[in-house]
Structure formats: structure tokens, C-alpha cells
Amino acid sequence: MLTPETINILSYFYALGNTPAVCLTQSLPPGSPADILLLGCGDVRNILFTSHVDVHRQLDLTCCDFQKAVLARNILLLSLIIDDSGPQCTKILWGLYYHFHLDDNCHELLRSQSQKLHSLSDTMEAWHNSKYGPVLKFCDSATLADVRTMWHFYITSREGSEKSHFEAHFNDNLEETRDIEVDLKSRARARRPNPMFVTDDGPLLHYGTDPLLGFHLAAAYAPLQAQSRLFTKSVSPKPQQRAVETAQLEFSNWVDSFSKRLKSVTIRFFSGNALAFSHSLLHRRVNGGSTGNWYRDRYRAETLKLNGPEFTSGSAPLTFDIIDRSNLCDHVGGLNLLTAVSPLLRNCASSAVYTEILHKRSESPQKAFDHILCGHTPTVSLLLGLFPVDYWTNVLP
Ligand SMILES: C[S@@+](CC[C@H](N)C(=O)[O-])C[C@H]1O[C@@H](n2cnc3c(N)ncnc32)[C@H](O)[C@@H]1O
Q1: What is the pTM of this model?
Q2: Whose CA is nearest to atom 19 of ligand 1?
Q3: Highest-confidence range of 3-7, 151-155, 198-202, by mean pLDDT?
Q4: CA 107 vs CA 15, 69, 284: distances in Å
Q5: Is residue 277 a contact partner of residue 41, using CB atoms and an 8 Å limit?
Q6: Is 58 exposed, middle or buried (0-12, 13-18, 19+ CB in 10 A)?
Q7: Ligand 1 center to residue 350 CA distance, Å?
Q8: Which residue, 97, 89, 92, is CA-closest to 73?
Q9: 66 CB near ligand 1 (under 6 Å)
Q10: Residue 273 CA: which ligand 1 atom is closest?
Q11: Closest Cα to residue 335, out of 289, 379, 272?
Q12: What residues does the DUF4470 domain cover (predicted)?
């Protein structure tokens, strides 16, 4: 199918999320299993936070992002949590996932884990039979191949001009971002560029990347009881130091919870365009077959085929209790996405589609709704079969 397309000259790599973590199951009745679709999934914060606060629920999360580097770094982190956890390990995971420079230990861990994942992912079958297969799954073989190229990128040793080229690219990436090196003494040996903050195919790290944005920092300034899981002993007068310690503690709590509930979580990954993925899921449900002849993304002539083992066997979910669209409507248009995702929502009163907007284009939330829906909200939502709860219950600010 040929359709008009504009070339996206400037695209960014969102290694870290820029909004605080949310509980994806907040609208669901307690206890029932949840199938969740994350479109433009970004980093792992929403997955870890949800599995931390909603401990007793069986979670099946399908994560789609068109940036393979986002998926590769997420899977690497989750695989390390599956391997082991403990206070020491969590500190290293924090360094690996959030710091732009690594010390020798962290760098060696990144290399050895990437090597391990690369060798386990030779084929779809080998991956699904590996230690990580029961929790971390791939929707199609092209996604597996995509993230493998990133793991290979992480283990590549660079010398001479290749090394200087990589370092120059890395520094370009970091030009506008800020690191959170509050403990300069202990971080003094972290000199190696962290390759998990670059992509192998061009897009620059987003200028607003800030490791603290994904956390809930109020606990850094509130007088908490010592028994609270968010209590830190810090007496530092420096607000930034307190914020970093709170974020690290929250991350450590998330990792701890996730490592204890591996049997009740399944995470599926797809790298490609959110619209193509949504339409292909619907096509699979309605017509069967692995492809609806969509391209995986708009810049590659590669057909999207849902050929992962669980799609072939029919055990992967094709309808969802929750669909989270991040702020994709700022990128691809609200109505384009809603028409693609609303047929995927399970027909149940508690099912919900979440969306965020970060570009303020309207002077009131009511107008923002009209803008997202490209028309009169009550009429368009009726046509879509969706019910904008906040709009009708008057809880909009
Ligand atoms: C919309 S972006 C913005 C950052 C977001 N507010 C967050 O905190 O993660 C979130 C993710 O969507 C991905 N993305 C953007 N456009 C996409 C598309 N058309 N299909 C799939 N993923 C997309 C980006 O790679 C990024 O990882």
C-alpha cells in the first residue's frame, strides 16, 4: 500500500522517560489479570512501578517502540534483574541505566551481559527456551534481529578513528543533557561513555533527557516516618542530592519488587511503528494470518509479520484492558492513533486508553480534547465508541 509520508528529518532517542512513572492498572478492579498495550513504551519506569504497586495482579505487557535502542536497553536491564538482585546489584543497575559514563566494573558488566544476550538470541526458538524467554518475549523475528544489532553495538571494541568517531558522536548526544553526578568522589572513576545512551543509526539523545524526571521526588522533601519504604537517611542540605537519593531508593524498591514476582509478569516486545502494529494486531484477530501487509515502520520496506511463537500459537493477547499511548498523539496525531487502538480495547467497563500531551496547543483542557479528537469531543468520542471519563465527570481542571 502506498500512502503519502513526510520525512522526519529530526528524530530523537528517548532513552529515559520525561514524565513521572504511572501505575498502568490504576483503573482496573483489584486482582484481575491485566493485558496491557504500551505504544511508544519508552523506558521501563511504568512497567517497574506498576509491578511494584500492583503486586498481586498477573500482568501481560506488550511494548511497542520504533526505536530499537530503547528496547535493547530495557531488555538488558530486565535480564539483569532476572539474573540477580540485591542492594549491591541494584546500585550497579542504576549506574548502567541512568549514568552517561561508566566505571570499569559497570562497563564490564554491560559487555558481558550484552554478549550473553547476543549469543542466546541466535534464533527465536533459542531465546524463548533461554532463562529469559518465559518473562521477556518477542512479537516477531525482526524485533529480535533489531535488538541483537544493538547488543552487538554495545560489545563492539573501538580503536583509532572508530573510537574517536564514537566518542564525538557520544559527546554530541550529551551536549544538552545533564548528568546526576552528585557523589563526585565515588563517580570519579566513571570515565567510559555508556553506549546505551547512543543509537547505531543516527537519532540524537533527546535534549530533555534527565534521569530524575521519571521518579516521584516529593518524598525527598516530605517528613517521612523511618518505617516508610521511601525514607532516606540523607541529611544533605543540597536539594539535588536528596532528590537523587530518593530516586535511587525508589528504583531499588521497584527492582526488588520486580525480581520477586517474575512468575506473574510477561513482557512482549515489538520494534516498529505504533500505528502499523495496532492495525496488524487487529488484522490478526479479525482475519488470522501473521500479516496485514503493513510496513513495520514508514522508512523501511519491511513487512510486519507477527511471527513470534505466541502469536503463531494464539496465546498472545489481541485485545487489551489498558492501552497506554504515552504522548504519541503529539507525534502521529490523536485521531490516527485512536482509530487504530479503539478496536483493540476489551469491551469492559474498566478498560481504558491513556494518553498524555506534552505540547500545549490549546488554552483549556476542553479545547485540548477537541484538538486531539480533531472535532467536537462528544460527537467524535461517540463515533469512536470511547467515553472520555474526565470530560464527562467534570474533573478536568
Ligand atoms: C512519544 S516519546 C516521548 C517520551 C515520553 N513522554 C516518555 O516519557 O517516554 C515515547 C516513545 O515513543 C517512541 N515513538 C515515537 N513515535 C513512535 C511511533 N510512531 N511508533 C512507535 N514508537 C514511537 C519513542 O521512540 C519514545 O521511546
Answers
A1: 0.93
A2: 273
A3: 151-155
A4: 18, 17, 41
A5: no
A6: middle
A7: 25
A8: 97
A9: yes
A10: 20
A11: 379
A12: 16-101
Whether the CB of 13 sits within 6 Å of ligand 1: no
Cβ of 334 less than 6 Å from ligand 1: no
pLDDT tens sequence across 187-224: 677 788 999 999 887 788 888 889 999 999 998 888 88
Alpha helices by DSSP H, the chain: 45-53, 68-83, 87-98, 104-120, 124-128, 141-155, 160-174, 239-260, 274-287, 309-313, 329-332, 334-341, 365-373, 377-384, 389-392
Alpha carbon of 381 to ligand 1 centroid (Å): 24
**What is the Cα–Cα distance from 38 to 46, expressed in whole angstroms?**
10
What torsion, rounded to 10 degrees, do the Cα atoms 28, 30, 31, 37 define? 20
